[in-house]
Write a structure and sequence with these properties.
elongated; alpha/beta; 14 helices
Amino acid sequence: MNICIISSAFPSKRNPIINIFIYRQAKALVERGNKVFVIGGDTEPREESGMIVYARPNPFKSMILALKTVLTIPKESLWLLKNKGLKGTVGRLALVQMTCNLLEKENIDVIDGNYATYGGVVAYLVSKIHNKQYITTCHGADMMEVTDAALRLLSEGEKRIVSLVLKNSKYILAPSQDLANYTKIYCPDCPTKVVYNSVDLNFFKPSNNKIFKERTVICVGSLDERKGHRYLLKAIQQILEEITDVDFIIIGRGSEKKKLKNLAKELNIQDNVNFIDFLTDEQLRIYYSSSEFFVLATLYDSFGIVFAEAMACGLPVVSTNILSLQEVVDGGGILVEPRNSDQLAKAMLRLLKDEKLRQELSKKALEQAKKFSIERRIDTIEELYESIIENEIKTKRAMEV
């Protein structure tokens, strides 16, 4: 199959971890013998053995592409973009033209628009020009936004966009049942499929290569408010009052980094908390395997690929009992109330003090991780892609008759 994946961003040298789960899916599809074309808003153009990545060009060239698109798409569709401002509108319209150019050069079988408000919008507009069916893959951030105080829904205009994109999708893919249920707000009768995000279980697995001298707890997640790091730091302070020989490693980048490092100093825990911007997958696997358990005080996640990675390496999880994590962790760890540093500290202390419990949860985590194998995800996605191809063939034959 020739597959076109559209996304707001795709991993690059400048940002190697952004939407890494989309990259892993594309790579796995290539390894199955498919040819994958990626249209990425924020990435770099390149070719990787069967995967060709197209990046949105500079603003001037993007504007030219956008103007070409405006002359092509139905005028009644332009309202889709008015909520996104000039930059967002130009970016999406540029990707529409890039995708149309690709369709004219290559025999594309399937279009998969990632994020309803970005890749989904692009796929919808392309479908209006080329009468091509598409899939929308939702990831959570396209459905809602999260602040520290509460869950904030999209604006009314953005809701209309998401609803139209989803209603015109052949399939909607969601990484958890929680997010699949949420799509029904926008499209009650649409064919939503739960397809878990995935990890390569042949790569992410327990390793005997231990690198830490002290007992270590690992946290991986972007340094923004929705990951709840400040609640974690306050919980760490409580732990260090009782157990002093344990270190905490927080891996991730984000706008909250300076605030969090200052908070660690205010709490006088900076000697036991190490912030690391980025680790390669190889380094991350070793860090997981060398740690006591994984912790993340997230306020919202539609899936959380890091939970699957950690569990695949045999780590129990300590996190929050939000709906998606009840589904993802499911017995492979301890879940507590969001924004509750006291409960978080108690759960971590239990695991630090009780080796038998850690071993029991480690076994459950390894078993749970099997649900998230890359093979299982690609099997399901290929079936859906093939059904779209078959449907288009039937439609063309019916039109010819």
